[in-house]
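lol ok so funny story. i was supposed to be doing the assay writeup but got distracted and ended up predicting the structure for this chain instead. priorities right. anyway since i did it might as well share w the group, maybe its usefull for someone
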Amino acid sequence: MLSIIMVRFIINSHPAWNEYLLPILQIYIAYIWNLDNFFPTTTEDPNYDYDTSYEYNWYYGFQAFYFHFAILQLGYQIWPQAVALIVIYTQYVSYYPTETLEYSAMCLTIFLVFIGLLVMKYTNENIKRLQFRDSREQNRWIKIIDQVLEQSIVVIKFDHKQDQLILQQINDISKKRLKIQNNIELREMLRNMIIENTHMEREEIKQKNLEQEIRDLIIKNDQYRFITHQVDVQSNVLNKEYKVKLIQQVLQDEYCVIAIFEQNLKNETHKLQLEVRCKENIFQFLLKQFFQQMKTASTRLKILYSMINFQQIRLLLNNNNENLKSMQSWVSTSLIRNQMNIIFSKKVKVSIKKDLQGFVTNQVYLFSILMSISQIFDEFHHMKIKGKQVLDVQRVKLTLIGRMNDALSFQKLLKQNLNLSQSFTQNQKIILKHLQKIIANKKIETQEKNQLLSIYLNKFLLWEGFREKHFSLKTKEMIHLSFEFEV
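and the output, tada:
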């Protein structure tokens, strides 16, 4: 036993020696099982019959077969061990040559056992070689795809135990373009890709995201037929459109889906042209209003409103606004009072709760909203500022009070959910789309257009600056328009 353990240690330490050690180990095992033959038991008992000890030869033979088979599986070279087994067989046959039927049956049995061992070894090694070759071929093609093709390619499989999609293969371009490094990022990316249309005749797919579509493709296709189709998706995170070709295939003995992502540049170019045209129309409208106010405005307040609209459009179109959004500073309530007195010539009453001396916030966004949102009033009389505490969070509430002729329609618009998200670019597109509709609508009068533009721009700034979605509008003796934010 000690010698077998030593041989096993040498095999693990020096795999290249297997070709020589394993045949020696086969012969050594055969020698151990034949010790009784080499050294017969001697006894002075007259009743001892040597031949009766072979009643259990089948038992010894079974164990010998097990050890020979186990040793044969250790190596990868067949012929060295085959030669060793032939030597062993020759030893078995030639040790007690007789012409009895039992002897012939024993020789035939041993021969068939050795042939069976060699056949099983050859079959196992052949299967391993084929699997290794197929795996190496697949990996080679994956490397070629990774180096040559420009498309983003992701190989996805379904883990039935976890009941979720996992990443099997991904090329370097996909890691950079799609920002995928692990299974969690893969699933988040697929969930944020909304399917817009498909070439397949299924209406329900329009409500799906890409993760649901791939899951259905794998789970519902019970027979695993070769399926390929293409879908158009919109990524809410990357803010891009892709044409995604989904191919169900078998790689490395596992069913999977190959997703090939190609950016939809035609739609991107068309959308970019529309976006530029939309911005031009907005600037032309505001510029026209500004010069019109310069000629006809009875008060400087109307000219100031036009200038504020320009400033808010600049904030809307400023793609590098992260630094601006992070600019937090102390704003005293006396400063707000002085600014409101200057802008409205002390015609607007400003009430401030006594215990509120000031707060830390973004001055640019705050004053832009205060100066702009007041233009939706036909008469603006009063502004209140007070602090409040909600669940240990300090907040500030500002309420503008005045008269408003079209309060009902403005109230609906102020409560409207614009589906603004964490993506500045996506929010920018949403607001621009609404502004373009307002400007293009010839049925709306100019003053009302300015008021509607102000509402959309201020909802955008309220969200981007303070992560608050709604203005509150209540009707009492006068109209109370309020908004609040955390400080």
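The two ends are 78 Å apart (CA to CA). Residues 101-148 form the longest helix (48 residues).
back to the writeup now i swear
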